[in-house]
Design brief:
Layout (H helix, E strand, L loop, with lengths): L4 H14 L21 H11 L5 E3 H8 L3 H13 L4 E3 L2 E3 L6 H9 L3 H12 L7 E4 L3 H10 L5 E5 L2 H7 L5 E5 L3 E3 L4 E3 L1 H8 L3 E6 L3 E3 L3 E4 L2 H12 L1 E7 L11 E4 L6 E5 L4 H9 L3 E5 L14 H6 L6
Helix pairs in contact: 3-4, 6-7, 7-8, 9-10
Length: about 325
């Protein structure tokens, strides 16, 4: 004798409609599905990723995406708002406004954390003591700055205020900030003052983030001021490495700041497409793809770094 699941469910629904006493529910039997199960941290990170391309998200929409209740979604959004990463609005959440600079950097700092930290560790291993290195204002460069704190007799040139802050009290490091006009959305310094400094500086290695890349156009970014300072930084370096996680390999951007022929290598993570990695290697660009480590605690906010170091808390 065989058991017909569909027939049983049909009978159960019929009984539920015709014979159910008031207030009594008949449990249905459902075949298992492949709906992914997200932890709270994974749900919150996904919300932040979605807000990179959307102005706002609604509770009902997120409940459907994550297959959880609206109560659970509201709890997640409240946690994000308490951390200063999003703004609550009626029925959902919105991205923070331009100009809320530290919060904007903080938001990006919490995306792809394990990948960025793995990339930073690999990049840090390429830096020798006694060298001069350039870091831009990207969040991956911030993680690299944390990796460099233990180096000795190192000079770091950067246009990132929060990158400089991460290294400010490292005893073996001299930090040179390029100067210029403050760009709030990235907490970076851009403009002629910064480019003038870089034109008189010779740097061993540069590590630059990017919004996208292609073999035809090289490394790309969106903001013209950021592109200009990255170009000057690259020109001052003997070797230039792109530091970007696997999500950037599927993106393009408005402006090129580093053509392929000027690029020494790329440091990325193992989620980058293998065919594209092979294509870059075929044209002579060394690509290092690292495996992300296990999930780590959320990163320290930049403003909390000094206090953590003084309390002997390991960062990075």
């Amino acid at each position: 004798m065989t058991f017909d699941l569909r027939c049983f469910e049909s009978v159960a629904r019929s009984l539920q409609l015709t014979c159910r006493p008031a207030g009594l529910r008949v449990a249905g039997i459902h075949a298992p599905d492949d709906t992914p199960v997200f932890t709270q941290q994974e749900r919150m990170q996904k919300v932040l990723q979605m807000l990179e391309t959307r102005e706002s998200l609604h509770v009902a929409e997120l409940a459907e995406v994550f297959s959880v209740s609206e109560v659970t979604v509201r709890s997640d959004l409240s946690t994000l708002a308490e951390q200063g990463l999003v703004a609550r609005v009626r029925g959902g959440v919105r991205a923070l406004q331009q100009g809320q600079s530290e919060v904007g950097f903080d938001l990006r700092l919490r995306l792809e954390v394990e990948r960025k930290r793995a990339i930073a560790r690999a990049a840090g291993a390429m830096v020798d003591e006694g060298e001069a290195v350039a870091l831009d204002a990207s969040t991956t460069a911030y993680y690299l700055a944390l990796e460099l704190r233990a180096k000795r007799e190192l000079v770091v040139v950067t246009n990132g205020l929060l990158v400089a802050t991460a290294l400010a009290d490292a005893p073996g490091i001299t930090v040179l900030v390029t100067g210029g006009v403050l760009r709030l959305s990235a907490m970076s310094l851009v403009g002629d003052l910064g480019t003038d400094v870089l034109r008189t500086t010779r740097i061993n290695k540069g590590f630059l983030g990017a919004r996208g890349l292609s073999i035809e156009r090289g490394l790309m970014d969106l903001n013209p001021d950021e592109v200009r300072i990255k170009q000057e930084m690259a020109d001052a370096c003997e070797q230039v490495f792109g530091i970007l996680d696997g999500t950037k390999w599927h993106r393009s951007a408005l402006l090129t700041f580093l053509p392929v022929e000027q690029l020494t290598g790329i440091i990325t993570d193992s989620s980058a497409p293998a065919t594209e990695i092979d294509a870059w290697r075929a044209i002579g660009v060394d690509v290092v793809a690292v495996d992300p480590g296990p999930r780590e605690p959320p990163p320290l906010r930049p403003r909390d770094l000094r206090r953590a170091v003084r309390n002997d808390v390991t960062v990075g």
